[in-house]
Amino acid sequence: MKRAIRYMRFSQLGQSNGSIERQELYIDQYLQYNNIQLVDSFIDRGRSAKTFDRPDFIKLQAFVAKHYKSVDYLLVDQLDRFSRDAGEAMNMVKQFQKKYSMQIISVTEGIVFDYDTPGSFFRAGLQLLLAEEDNINRSIKVRGGLYTARAKEGRFLTREKPFGYRKVGEGKQRHLEVDELEAKTVRAIYEMFLRDVPLYKIKEMAYAEGFDRKGNMAIDRVLANPVYAGLVRVEPFKDLPGGLFPAIHEPIIDKTSWTMVQSKMKRADKVKVTVDDELPLRGVLKCHCGNPLTGAPSRGKSGKYFYYYKCKQSKHNNISTLKAHEQFLNACDLMSVPKRKIKEIRDGSYASIEQEMKSNKKKVAGKRHELEELQQRLNKVEEKWFSDEINKDTYDRWYSTYSEHILALTASIERLSSNPGKAFEILDSKLDLLGDIRQIFNKSDILQKRDFVNMVFDGNLYYEQGIYRTPTMMDIFSHSASKMEEKGYLIYQKKRDNISVIPQSGR
């Protein structure tokens, strides 16, 4: 009696196991009718036929290599269950027959795949080619449908939901909905990145708040994902362009912030910055040569550790943090804003805000009009392409240009439409704190201290010959600049338009 093994498969786990039951039924009938003994069965559930890298097919190959002398046939319901790649399938079948003297039989198609019989070889090859063509056509339809759903309908179709959202609805109604608890963490990630907070500190915050994505690049992927700006990234399909398209879900991050983050990520400094409560100025304070100062502890004879800011260049700065911090805090005392100035700021702010809101309203109207014109131009370009008046390269070039401008205008409209009055209400309640800058600095955490230094001095705080120096300083804090210099705390020498670095003193 002849002996056989059988192989069964279906592609998607969502399919019914009835597919396997049907294949079993047809193969059982073939076995009974031809008086063939079944030795073993191999089943791959939810596995594509594009490759032979399938768990049970690998087991089948191992079984054949070991027991081929006692097996005559490999039975399948149809050849497309075996493979949908005609070339790969032909080579595999040839190997089974030449190496193991085993023939493959498609029971419902009535094909015995015999490499040495021209008619059989042709029929089986044709059947495999038809299966591959069917697979190609199905793939084209699927990719076309995905393109339409993403680019035209603005739907997010990736299987894994982005952190910050949850999936609701079924079928075509399935969409993303903001998860406010997670969205709060996403907003914090973007805000901290724009504040130059080191990535490892952002990760610490995110995971403490329940961020559950794993991997060293998890935060980077959040920062780069356009879904948070209400966009969906679409791959090109045939002659249709790819790129970023408006999505139907609610954004978590405004487009302006997202665009700023993308720009910053492209030029991000790859040097890792480590923050330390003992060294709040490390990386933000610079040596007179322009290099950011590092910092480290040094052990004294008594065994106590003392901290120093150091330049990587030998014979440059090596400053005791005790001295550097005391100088800086003394400068903070002189930066404190007088009460009369605080009153002027409070009195003048509301009028400025009202004027800004009126100005923004006019700007928004103008930008909306510009946006409508750009959209009309884009539509005309699409019409010309559809009517073959322009070629694909021309269409892609204009599409890219107009799309970038539309995205920039949309982001600008969002920013100008925000109400600055809400921000001032928060500021107004804190204005009196400006009267004691030393206290503000001391009570801030290390990240806030770094933000303060970068903001006040625009990233241009240097140390040279025992004193702080800067070419840039916020006007509100510079009212006692001469006294700061007189007392040996800080020299504020305004940056001239044609000078790009801090002026050197005493050299």
Automatic annotation (TrEMBL):
What are the alphabetically sorted keywords of the record? Coiled coil
Q: Where are the transmembrane segments?
A: none
User: Pfam families this protein is in?
Assistant: Recombinase, Resolvase
What GO terms are given for molecular function?
Answer: DNA binding; DNA strand exchange activity
- What PROSITE patterns is this protein classified in? RECOMBINASE_DNA_BIND (PS51737), RECOMBINASES_3 (PS51736)
Sequence ranges assigned to domain Resolvase/invertase-type recombinase catalytic in this UniProt record: 3-153
Please list the residue ranges annotated as the Recombinase domain. Answer: 162-271
**Chain coiled-coil ranges:** 357-384
Q: By what name is this protein known?
A: Recombinase family protein
